[in-house]
User: Which sequence fits this backbone?
């Protein structure tokens, strides 16, 4: 069985993808007959774009620049981000080039997503764009895979995965499977296969994603892919854990199963072009646990029952860091755990120190008083340089409604503890939670202002109602009187609207949010660090 695993366009090209790196290692370890290749088509998508823009075959206009100047500036930005030496350069310079790059990403990605949607629904797109997508899949086709797996982390990647799957099917009989975090958090992933896409011609037959994806694999993919690679006949599909598929127009949803956490091997990044990512040195992702130990936030969908919280052995995690450091000459890491609770973090830090590892790293954590001054110092000594905190709001009432389980005064103390210990804080905040008042929004702004010296990077956004979250299931408990599908909602871009019977309207929230953009920029060292978190780690580790 030849399997091709694909990281789907697009995610920021600043580090390789973790999911395919673990999956490929798992299959290679457990299935001697498996021939697995891995492609970061997200990185290739960016590299192809840079080359095409440079040679003038793909024209992009960045704000207030003509096409030639845009191409020149993009070139400069890419080159700067790859060679940046924080110790010898001004943060303003970083901010300038990272902003150019972000503008490019926003414009280019929106354009390519619209092209992908058109091509997917049978509309014509310029030949050069069609060629662009066709060329992306050539390395995959060259390996003549029997099975192609798309790893999809975010909703905006679905359209790209579907189009690339459609193109692969034109040239190959390979079966196609889609999985990853995006599919895993959907409340009814099967709808992705069976809901028609919007059509231009009403008389044309329905276009369904099941025409391009043979299977979906929500949840953790290791066992499902392992079993799928061993199937001999269609009747064997019933034994593949987590698999969703149609057979003779009947929908099948197989029972879930999760791998033993201790069976997970160290990720294999050897398939990736580590020197091509937009960082001056590699930053590798890793995980010490799966699932969320808290699993109570009312806006979150990351805690379906199939994503049970399990932890890896600390000594194995430390062995993994050591292995990755030697194997890839890498000293910078990001833990992608949903969060690492304080007692576990303490053990991890002690083991890293005991092992004599000299690495720097970032991680998600929950701002509870357990992150004492002592613990923060220990974390710093072990190489922790960035902590990413889901602060969300400066209003205790909103925090309680969110089910965060945090105390706003403790949060303040924790940010101070980390900052004093020499750790940078990346803070997430959310505006417009249902029923939030203008005064409560102001409390968040005041919180940010009061703690600005302890907030080094900020990621701010407005509330989005997600299907499957507790708020969606129990709207009446969150002052929501009505929920409906947004006018532009589709299976590719699902969007919900809602009416509230107290608090700010969505328009008021947007107004406040837009009005405070300059304030948000002033809070952080560079606003771009909220987006390009690997760069924040590189900057702090200088
Ligand atoms: S938002 Fe809350 S429930 Fe969701 S992953 Fe984070 S801590 Fe867990």
Assistant:
């Amino acid at each position: 069985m030849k399997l091709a695993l694909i990281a789907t366009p697009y995610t920021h090209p600043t580090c390789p993808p973790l999911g395919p790196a673990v999956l490929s290692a798992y299959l290679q370890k457990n299935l001697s007959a498996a021939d697995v290749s891995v492609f970061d088509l997200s990185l290739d998508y960016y590299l192809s774009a840079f080359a095409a823009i440079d040679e003038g075959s793909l024209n992009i206009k960045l704000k207030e620049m003509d096409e030639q100047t845009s191409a020149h500036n993009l070139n400069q930005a890419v080159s700067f981000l790859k060679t940046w030496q924080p110790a010898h350069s001004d943060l303003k310079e970083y901010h300038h080039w990272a902003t150019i790059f972000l503008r490019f990403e926003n414009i280019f990605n929106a354009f390519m997503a619209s092209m992908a949607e058109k091509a997917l629904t049978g509309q014509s797109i310029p030949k050069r764009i069609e060629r662009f997508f066709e060329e992306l899949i050539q390395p995959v086709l060259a390996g003549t895979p029997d099975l192609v797996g798309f790893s999809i982390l975010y909703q905006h990647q679905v359209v790209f995965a579907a189009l690339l799957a459609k193109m692969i099917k034109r040239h190959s009989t390979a079966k196609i499977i889609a999985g990853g975090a995006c599919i895993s958090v959907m409340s009814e992933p099967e709808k992705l296969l069976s809901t028609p896409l919007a059509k231009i011609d009403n008389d044309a037959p329905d276009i369904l994603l099941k025409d391009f994806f043979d299977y979906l694999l929500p949840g953790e993919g290791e066992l499902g892919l392992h079993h799928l690679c061993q199937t001999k006949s269609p009747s064997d599909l019933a034994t593949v854990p987590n698999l969703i598929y149609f057979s003779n127009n009947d929908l099948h949803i197989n029972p879930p199963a999760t791998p033993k956490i201790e069976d997970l091997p160290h990720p294999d990044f050897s398939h990736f072009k580590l020197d091509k990512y937009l960082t001056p040195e590699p930053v590798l992702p890793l995980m010490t646990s799966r699932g969320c130990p808290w699993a109570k936030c009312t806006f979150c969908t990351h805690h379906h029952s199939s994503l049970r919280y399990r932890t890896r052995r600390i000594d194995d995690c430390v062995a993994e860091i050591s292995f990755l450091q030697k194997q890839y000459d890498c000293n910078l890491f990001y833990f992608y755990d949903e969060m690492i609770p304080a007692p576990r973090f303490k053990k991890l830090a002690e083991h890293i120190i005991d092992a004599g590892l000299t690495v720097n790293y970032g991680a998600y954590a929950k701002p509870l008083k357990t992150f004492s001054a002592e613990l923060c110092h220990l974390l710093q000594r072990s190489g922790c340089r960035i902590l990413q905190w889901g602060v969300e709001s400066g209003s205790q009432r909103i925090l309680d409604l969110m089910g965060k389980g945090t105390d706003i005064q403790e949060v303040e103390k924790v940010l101070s503890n980390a900052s004093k210990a020499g750790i940078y804080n990346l803070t997430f905040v959310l505006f417009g939670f249902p029923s939030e008042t203008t005064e409560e929004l102001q409390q968040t702004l005041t919180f940010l202002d009061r703690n600005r010296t302890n907030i080094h990077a900020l990621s701010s956004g407005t509330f989005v109602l997600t299907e499957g979250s507790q708020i969606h299931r129990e709207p009446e408990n969150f002052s929501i009187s009505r929920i409906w599908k947004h006018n532009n909602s589709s299976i590719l871009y699902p969007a919900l609207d809602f009416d509230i019977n107290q608090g700010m309207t969505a328009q008021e929230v947007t107004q406040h949010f837009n009005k405070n953009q300059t304030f948000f920029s002033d809070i952080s060292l560079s606003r771009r660090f909220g987006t390009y978190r690997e760069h924040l780690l590189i900057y702090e580790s200088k």
Residues 1-271 form one domain.
